[in-house]
């Protein structure tokens, strides 16, 4: 019995499913890619985070890469408002503070409308 | 693995549905990894999300900059062509300046417009920061050199330079830490080649060279002792067709740990592949054999003495020209004659044995519907006593211009071949699976199948992928009735997915009329 205090049972079960598929002798690369797509497509965002933490702790490169890529896909080229809404991020900044930060990093905010999506 | 403590910090009990901000609760190093998949523009902009995110971007060790992306997402109004590109470089400089000074592991830069002074500036910063992985992609032509400072040469573990148009490189020291090298359309001098590929590059394991040009040199030597994978694509691209090879000098490879080797390109003036005890797979696609090659190209790969370099491989993939020019009966006769002339008979016999492809158990070949090619295949089978799997692909028919069509008919009549009973070691004892793709219903095609069936004594699977549109032909029903030497063999017909013809197959490779 090897205790794993940082991962709960449900996440571990998913990780094991992933590993089983990827270490199968006669699974082709195509089959593995298909499996990855289906496996990750149905995952709720909350599960993604658990999977990321688990994969990082257990050092499972492939799964970690896939999960982080999925989280990144959710943030790619989205407006600040969209990201806040989707990931439920509470901003403690006042609107003046926000404008100030944007001014400080003006070189990263050129040509962007404040409410563009 | 210093995840433990930060993991504990983020393990708060959570409700079933995710309405809580768990993203912010992830530890920094996982966020860094997520950011490594994003363009740095998105990464910097996370600084306004909340207080927790204010400075995460300053320690991200993986930086991706994309000029196209930057211009598209920042500039809706039409501006002068160059201005957004200078703004892009400003963005990069600010981003690097305002970082917190932590280690940068990788910089990946897509720049469609090459401004060499800016690139060289970036290289100097990368040197100072001891960046480990560098990736420059997609730039266009420039006559100015890309210069790698000494410190950078010594700290880089991975280098990729893939430009759309040739760029000259200048390096000032041996790349002693480099593990992977990927260069496309790069112009190097002999000196540079040495700093990248010599025996001093002790960590070098993977090399991919495509369309690189080498100036002023008789012979390129690749001597990196830990090299495992080597791929050389030696063609110039010109509007989707290939043009004669970019480097015409000799190539000498001595890599005792080489596991896989792939060469795609025209025949070179000289070629030596030495010390290949650990070679597992080799793939040779010859794209052109010049007329009268026997005289000028004595030391080429296909010269029988050199073919020995491939004899340890377990898997071999060969294109039509290799089969045609390297494996015909007379070439092998010449080989034996050479040995008898130049060495004592005993030595000659020893060398003869080493020509046997003892380790080969997987062979992929490209053939044409012509007796010469089929004989080449039979010869190769004779020298592969332990072969278990054979994959044959018949080359796609080429478009024949009207003026040539009559001539072609005459040639086709010459190329008939009859099957025969022959005791070939691999067919009798080892070959279990044969797959033939793009097969049409002609005489010669059926004779080949007949040959394999009547001599394949332990054959288990014969998979045939007929050329599109030929499936229902009567000739295939004849095939099923051929005599079979193996009682276990199962003949199956599979769908042939028309392969996407790679650009290097569209050029003027092996003109058939040169017989």
UniProtKB/TrEMBL annotation, chain A:
Residues 67-108 form the SKP1 component dimerisation domain. One of its GO terms (biological process) is ubiquitin-dependent protein catabolic process. InterPro entries: SKP1, SKP1-like_dim_sf, SKP1/BTB/POZ_sf, Skp1_comp_dimer. Gene3D superfamilies: Potassium Channel Kv1.1, Chain A. Pfam families: Skp1. Transmembrane segments: none annotated. This is SKP1-like protein 19.
From TrEMBL, chain B:
It holds the Pfam family F-box. Residues 20-54 form the F-box domain. InterPro entries: F-box-like_dom_sf, F-box_AtFBL13-like, F-box_dom, F-box_SCFL_complex_component, FBD, LRR_dom_sf, LRR_FXL15/At3g58940/PEG3-like. This is F-box/FBD/LRR-repeat protein.
């Amino acid at each position: 019995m090897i205790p794993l205090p940082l991962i709960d049972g449900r996440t571990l079960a998913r990780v094991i499913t992933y590993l089983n598929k990827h270490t199968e002798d006669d699974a082709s690369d195509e089959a593995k890619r298909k499996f990855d797509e289906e496996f990750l497509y149905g995952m709720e965002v909350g599960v993604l985070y658990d999977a990321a933490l688990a994969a990082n702790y257990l050092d499972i490169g492939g799964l970690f890469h896939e999960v982080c890529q999925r989280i990144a896909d959710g943030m790619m080229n989205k407006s600040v408002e969209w990201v806040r809404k989707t990931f439920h991020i509470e901003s403690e900044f006042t609107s003046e503070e926000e404008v100030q930060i944007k001014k400080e990093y003006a070189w990263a905010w050129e040509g962007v409308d404040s409410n563009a999506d | 693995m210093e995840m433990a403590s930060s993991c504990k910090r983020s393990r708060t009990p959570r409700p079933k549905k995710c309405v809580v901000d768990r993203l912010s609760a992830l530890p920094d190093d996982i966020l860094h990894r997520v950011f490594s998949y994003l363009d740095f523009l998105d990464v910097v902009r996370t600084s306004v999300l909340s207080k927790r995110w204010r400075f995460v971007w300053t320690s991200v060790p993986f930086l991706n900059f994309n000029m196209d992306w930057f211009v598209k997402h920042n500039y809706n109004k039409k501006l002068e062509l160059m201005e957004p590109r200078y703004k892009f470089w400003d963005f990069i400089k600010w981003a690097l300046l305002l970082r917190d000074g932590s280690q940068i592991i990788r910089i990946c830069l897509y720049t469609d417009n090459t401004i060499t002074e800016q690139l060289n500036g970036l290289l100097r910063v990368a040197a100072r920061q001891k960046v480990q992985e560098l990736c420059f992609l997609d730039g266009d032509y420039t006559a100015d050199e890309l210069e790698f400072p000494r410190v950078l040469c010594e700290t880089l573990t991975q280098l990729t330079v893939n430009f759309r148009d040739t760029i000259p490189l200048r390096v000032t020291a041996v790349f002693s830490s480099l593990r992977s090298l990927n260069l496309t359309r790069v112009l190097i001098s002999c000196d540079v080649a040495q700093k990248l590929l010599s025996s001093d590059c002790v960590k070098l394991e993977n090399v991919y060279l495509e369309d690189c040009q080498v100036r002023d040199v008789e012979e390129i030597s690749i001597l990196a002792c830990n090299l495992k994978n080597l791929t050389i694509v030696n063609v110039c691209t010109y509007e989707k067709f290939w043009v004669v090879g970019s480097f015409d000098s000799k190539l000498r490879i001595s890599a005792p740990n080489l596991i896989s080797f792939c060469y795609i390109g025209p025949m070179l003036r000289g070629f030596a592949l030495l010390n290949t005890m650990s070679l597992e797979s080799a793939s040779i696609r010859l794209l052109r054999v010049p007329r009268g090659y026997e005289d000028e190209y004595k030391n080429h790969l296909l010269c029988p003495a050199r073919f020995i370099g491939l004899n340890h491989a377990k898997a071999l993939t060969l294109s039509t020209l290799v089969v045609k020019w390297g494996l015909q009966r007379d070439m092998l006769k010449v080989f034996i004659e050479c040995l008898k002339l130049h060495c004592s008979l005993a030595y000659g016999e020893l060398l003869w044995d080493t020509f046997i492809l003892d380790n080969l158990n997987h062979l992929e070949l490209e053939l044409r519907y012509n007796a010469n090619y089929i004989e080449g295949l039979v010869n190769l089978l004779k020298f592969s006593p332990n072969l278990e799997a054979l994959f044959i692909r018949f080359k796609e028919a080429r478009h024949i211009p009207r003026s040539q069509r009559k001539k072609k008919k005459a040639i086709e009549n010459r190329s008939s071949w009859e099957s025969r009973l022959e005791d070939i070691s691999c067919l009798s004892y080892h070959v279990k699976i044969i797959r033939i793709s793009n097969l049409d219903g002609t005489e010669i095609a059926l004779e080949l199948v007949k040959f394999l069936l009547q001599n394949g004594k332990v054959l288990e699977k014969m998979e045939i992928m007929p050329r599109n549109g030929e499936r229902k032909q009567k000739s295939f029903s004849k095939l099923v009735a051929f005599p079979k030497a193996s009682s276990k063999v199962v003949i199956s017909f599979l769908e042939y997915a028309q392969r996407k013809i790679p650009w290097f197959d569209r050029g003027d490779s092996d003109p058939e009329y040169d017989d």
